[in-house]
Specification:
mainly alpha
Length: about 150
């Protein structure tokens, strides 16, 4: 809760106007949407077959994993596109509410990564940033958004 109070205090200071705070929020939020946009695009184009780990699986397993990989990459890309559209119109409370819901879904989906981490007791370094984004940044963005509107 300490992070929430820091963000709340920052957004309530009179030195930064509401318009300026909203502009800063939009810029930071759009920058953050590059993660699902880039990861989704790369996953759609390259798929799973280009990973060195794919050699450990049979052909049918690789086809199945590649199919799922590209599907989830498409979802990631779609979420990124929707977030950009919502961020540009975030002053509209309907878009703002949908933005909060979508960020909540992204944060909630991080539970899958956490379960995998706990079951395997090993985490690959490339999954540390997404876990931080899902469990820390998404809730902070929801709090920040609700403080400035």
């Amino acid at each position: 809760m300490r992070f929430a109070s820091i963000i709340y205090n920052f957004t309530q200071k009179k030195t930064i106007t509401k318009k300026m705070n909203l502009l800063i929020f939009k810029i930071v939020a759009v920058i953050m949407t590059f993660v699902p946009l880039i990861n989704g695009s790369i996953g759609l184009i390259k798929g799973f077959k280009n990973f060195p780990e794919s050699e450990k699986f049979s052909r049918n397993q690789v086809l199945y994993i590649d199919n799922e990989w590209r599907f989830h990459s498409g979802l990631s890309l779609g979420i990124g596109i929707i977030l950009v559209c919502m961020i540009l119109n975030i002053e509209n409370h309907q878009y703002g509410f949908c933005y909060d819901i979508l960020m909540g879904i992204v944060a909630f989906s991080g539970i899958g990564r956490l379960i995998s981490l706990l079951q395997r007791s090993k985490i690959l370094p490339k999954f540390i940033a997404p876990i931080i984004a899902e469990f820390i940044f998404c809730p902070l963005f929801i709090i920040w958004h609700n403080c400035i509107l």
